[in-house]
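Hey, can you fold this?
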Amino acid sequence: MVQRHGAIWHSHSSHAARCHPVPVDKHFNADFYVTCATVIPVLFLALVVQGGTYENMLRTAMEAAHRHPGRGRDGAASAFLPAVAYLTLVAGVLGEAFALGALFSRWDTTASRATVMVMTLFLLVVIAAGPAWKFFGVQRSVEQLLGEKERHSFQPRARAGRHSSPR
């Protein structure tokens, strides 16, 4: 094995040096890019299968913009949700493009590694946001119901047919 200009060349005999068709950077982590290139489309599929989360984001933003443009919660939704939808699309496309590009060239930089990682993690957060939102909504409802049940259980109950009168 001989190292030239950051690439590793393999020699199979002492007389003739043979090499890979493309030199491979000794620090290139192909497993990372293969994993991300596989996970990113799966995350997009999860977004679609998750009950139309992506379409719901866009629909909610449109409805909020038509109800009260620029006012309060609806204004925030009409500005925030399209931005998240746009960033989701960009994260998927750029993350996949960078991962496939690095695999194709068998070379990467710290910036490309960081870009792929950030884009993949962003998609993961967006995918997890839908179920997390639903979970916390259910949790809040359960807590409210339990709170009401506890308030009602501490109230004194009148016995049927017997009323006590103060003397």
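Oh, and this one too while you're at it.
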Amino acid sequence: MFLAEEKNFIESYGSFIASFFASLVALSIAIWGWKMGSWFKRPKLKVIRLKKYNQNGGLNVWRILIKNVGNETAKNVESEIIEVYDGAIKRENFLPCPLRWANRQNLESYRSLMNILPGQTAFVDLLDEFYRDGKLNMRFGTVISLDDIKDFSYLSNDRSMIKVGIFCENYKTLYFNFKFNLAKRET
């Protein structure tokens, strides 16, 4: 009498199961591959420092150095002054203002959003420091100049703090506080 060999479940259906799961993996990569790639490729913005640069004509510019230490371009980056504190008191009549990019050449280009390539450093003008009538003035490095409205344009207290937000389309928002003591000329 002829007896059929008994096969276990894996031997009988193993190739079907393996083919099914391989097809699921291939389909998943085809549908969500762009998202899976973003798990490994992403920008990472880092504030390196705040530094004062001496410009011509007695103007000093305080610049924030922002570096993309990630492996993907940071898209549509913008920085703006969110809040200003005079001493410990929040300035109530202040509206958030975008800051200008220092490494842009003309008025129109530093108003726009900026892409920061991997490894690239970008400079944002936070304050313009200059003397007028023998008095130190610290004017915000905003895109639009509102010199006539002191609360929108200048630090007015000896001890001040500026809260800056750095926004990016494909990275989290960063917030930093910069403190200034104009009486001692410290940051």
